[in-house]
Amino acid sequence: METSYQGGVAGDEDDNFQRLSQTIASNVKKISQNVSSMSKMVNQLQTPQDSQELRNQLRQIQNYTQKLAKDTSTILMELMKMRVNQSAQKLQRERLSDEYISTLNTFLATQKLAAQKTKEDIRKAKAQTINIAPPASTNSNKDPWSEMGDSNLRKQEQLTMQTERELQELAEREGHIRQLENDIMDVNQIFKELGTMIHDQGAVVDSIESSVECALDNVENGTQELRQAANYKNKIRKKKVYLAIILIIVISIILIVLFNH
């Protein structure tokens, strides 16, 4: 019954390992596809294809990929904590870790490029911002010479509305920049946690291997000592037998001599 129970536990661990591995592989594939789409969008920034709709789509896919990366990091850390004995599982875990880190690097580079271009847009927009003059006061009694003033006033109002839209867009882009910078810091934190996890995992593996080697040495030493003890016991037994035979021979000789006399 004990063997069957242990086999069941091992089977559950293998199933859990495969489930986590498949989830990570699927997420890494999604992140890679999203980063590819993001890269194309970022390349369209500051070109004739640039638009507010494009920037909104880029922001949405970036936010989704950011969350997916965090979830994948959590799952990968859970996988790294699992104790595996099969070399195939170790290789699979290392491969998934390498693929995830590589994809995360590409995602981080794309984020930085998007942030850089957005900052450049903000600087240019601020430099081109129009200083709005206070609107001229209107007079109900118009004369023929006031038509030119009315035309200038309408232009001024149009410029005012345009500038307000530009200022609103600037505020949105600045908010997007702050969000991007926070996301970049989060990705850097993920790298830091993964690095610590991989380093600690390596230390744990080394410690386990060292303990196993030490146990094997102890087993071998114990077996050798038992073997030596058995040999020593056999030698003592043989000596006792030889002494008994010699004693019997001596007693027999003495008895024969006494009987002859």
UniProtKB/TrEMBL annotation:
<dbReference type="GO" id="GO:0031201">
    <property type="term" value="C:SNARE complex"/>
</dbReference>
<dbReference type="InterPro" id="IPR045242">
    <property type="entry name" value="Syntaxin"/>
</dbReference>
<feature type="domain" description="T-SNARE coiled-coil homology">
    <location>
        <begin position="167"/>
        <end position="229"/>
    </location>
</feature>
<keyword id="KW-0813">Transport</keyword>
<dbReference type="GO" id="GO:0000149">
    <property type="term" value="F:SNARE binding"/>
</dbReference>
<dbReference type="GO" id="GO:0006906">
    <property type="term" value="P:vesicle fusion"/>
</dbReference>
<dbReference type="Pfam" id="PF14523">
    <property type="entry name" value="Syntaxin_2"/>
</dbReference>
<keyword id="KW-0472">Membrane</keyword>
<feature type="transmembrane region" description="Helical">
    <location>
        <begin position="241"/>
        <end position="259"/>
    </location>
</feature>
<keyword id="KW-1133">Transmembrane helix</keyword>
<dbReference type="GO" id="GO:0048278">
    <property type="term" value="P:vesicle docking"/>
</dbReference>
<keyword id="KW-0812">Transmembrane</keyword>
<dbReference type="GO" id="GO:0008021">
    <property type="term" value="C:synaptic vesicle"/>
</dbReference>
<dbReference type="InterPro" id="IPR000727">
    <property type="entry name" value="T_SNARE_dom"/>
</dbReference>
<dbReference type="GO" id="GO:0005484">
    <property type="term" value="F:SNAP receptor activity"/>
</dbReference>
<keyword id="KW-0532">Neurotransmitter transport</keyword>
<dbReference type="InterPro" id="IPR010989">
    <property type="entry name" value="SNARE"/>
</dbReference>
<dbReference type="InterPro" id="IPR006011">
    <property type="entry name" value="Syntaxin_N"/>
</dbReference>
<dbReference type="GO" id="GO:0006836">
    <property type="term" value="P:neurotransmitter transport"/>
</dbReference>
<comment type="similarity">
    <text>Belongs to the syntaxin family.</text>
</comment>
<protein>
    <submittedName>
        <fullName>Syntaxin-12</fullName>
    </submittedName>
</protein>
<dbReference type="Pfam" id="PF05739">
    <property type="entry name" value="SNARE"/>
</dbReference>
<dbReference type="GO" id="GO:0006886">
    <property type="term" value="P:intracellular protein transport"/>
</dbReference>
<dbReference type="InterPro" id="IPR006012">
    <property type="entry name" value="Syntaxin/epimorphin_CS"/>
</dbReference>
